[in-house]
Amino acid sequence: MARKITTNRKLAMTILAWTIGFLIFFPILWIFLMSFKSEADAIKSPFQMLAAPWGLESYGEVQTRSNYTRFFLNSVVLSVGSTLLALAIAIPAAWAMAFVPGKRTKDLLMWMLSTKMMPAVGVLVPMYLIFRDLHLLDTRTGLVIVMTLINLPIVIWMLYTYFKEIPGEILEAARMDGANLRSEILYILTPMAVPGIASTMLLNIILAWNEAFWTLQLTTSKAAPLTQFIASYSSPEGLFYAKLSAASTMAIAPILILGWFSQKQLVRGLTFGAVK
Amino acid sequence: MGKITLNSVHKSFGDVDVIPSIDLEINDGEFVVFVGPSGCGKSTLLRLIAGLEDTTSGSIQIDGKDATDLPPAKRGLAMVFQSYALYPHMSVRKNIMFPLKMAGMDPAEAEARVANAAKVLNLTDYLDRKPGQLSGGQRQRVAIGRAIVREPSAFLFDEPLSNLDAALRVNMRQEISELHQTLKTTMIYVTHDQVEAMTMADKIVVLQAGRIEQVGSPMELYHSPANVFVAGFIGSPKMNLITGPEAAKHNATTIGIRPEHLLIDPDGPWQGVVGLAERLGSDTFLKIAVEGMDPITLRADGDLTLRHGDKIGLAPMMAKLHRFGPDGKALV
Known about the structure:
The structure holds two protein chains of two kinds. In chain A, helix 1 (7-34) crosses helix 13 and helix 5 (68-99) packs across helix 10. The longest helix of chain A is centred in the first third of the chain and has 32 residues, at 68-99. Chain A is mainly alpha-helical. Chain A is built from 14 helices and no strands. In chain A, 74% of the residues lie in helices and 0% in strands. The model of chain A has no long low-confidence stretch (mean pLDDT 86). By secondary structure, chain B is an alpha+beta fold. Chain B folds into two domains: 4-229, P-loop containing nucleotide triphosphate hydrolases (Rossmann fold); 255-324, CATH 2.40.50.140. In chain B, the strands form four sheets. A six-stranded mixed β-sheet of chain B has the order 6-7-8-3-9-10, sandwiched between helices. A five-stranded antiparallel β-sheet of chain B has the order 13-17-14-15-16, with no helix packed on it. In chain B, strands 2-1-4-5 form a four-stranded antiparallel β-sheet, covered by helices on one side. In chain B, strand 4 (57-62) and strand 5 form a beta hairpin. Chain B starts with a strand and ends in an 8-residue tail after the last strand.
């Protein structure tokens, strides 16, 4: 028997869901609203602030004070670069683990995930020293490498789960049909795994875009991505709420838009395998 | 050509010997069925022939050439899988064409072959659909289509009908048999269903625990099972196997009599009481409790009126009685 859902219950659930959604979204909304106020109005009480006139002056100031484009480009290089590099390593790795598992495959996967359980700050000093000695501090290359390494376990895990969903018999059928390894990968596996690869890619771009520990520690200016851009407005000289909000909005807008347009793909990718 | 020879083929997974050692000859054009209970190694044997598993030792020859170390693609065999294993992102047309594309065939020629296969298999109207839009039977046909277009030297079927419902299974069984008669290509068919084995095979290979128990035509296996296992496995309902003093009377450890080889005889040697009566219309199967023996199954006329609790006397047809020794092998 199907579960009965009354209209009242449905209404209550809808309101509850929207409320929770709104609460989660509220800080972002508040930052967005604040970014259109003057510095003086931004520190007033909420109601006074909302009543104050709207304007784009904060954006103008942020634009003149710092070079948004450079930070933005660094973020793009960092997130896209580290994602492509991670995929290049993770696809063959996940492939091997999904289709030719060894005795230690499970342990290996667990070990990789366990590295994510360690607090990043625990390796800050050694990482910093290594970066210093290799002259990688404040370089895009260094940042791409560290971001790749940080996200690699998640990328391998995600791809591994997707590949596991591809029935081995289909690959065997391709082999029987005369496909060599190259054709098998090109014509059968990749097209079948595309949704999985795409959502992994999207998630990784988002994770790398938002990463704010290593990007802040290992960069100062040349390779600084948008996280540095935001941080530069929460300086010791005092907080400038309006400018900070404008900078934050500018930093998160691209990834928010990407996320918005790809949400279907993301949800589908993340629930892949859970629902057939 | 499609002659396949297995010489002392042995397969182990780690310490487990799945197939201790098998010698088998499959002649060109034969329909051979590997049958046995689950886990008997029949699918592994098929996969060894296909090249999807490597042999631990021994050799496999296809058309006189050693194929032991050849990859699946080079063996010239086609396989139909239990799950159909269609490529979900390709249309039916592309699925069937895939092996031809891999062989580098001229597209026009390939197109013609696909059209022909589709006609034979009643798939012409479905060529542009994706496998997900097809029913189980149609998917199975696509899988067969993909196998026949490349004109392999032999077809391998791995329990191809087990995902279909009963009615469709009977249809597909007949279609595959007809296909064999048309193509006259060697077919190796794996199943755990002895009815499929009996109805389709030229030659049945009965396997148990990785060993061949008996090889023969369906009627040979039915009339002269080599041992107790084959006797119990081939034939439906199962042969009655009787041990103890009743078997000793016939100088055997076990005697076997098929349900259809028992006569109702009020004065017969086995007196019992009817337990369960299963009416199939054409036949009635009675389970009869006879003292000192396991329940005996009798195949009787469909209109038989006996019911639960009635007394009945049975007499085995002596010419049809099978005798087995202490090692389970048939006594001559």
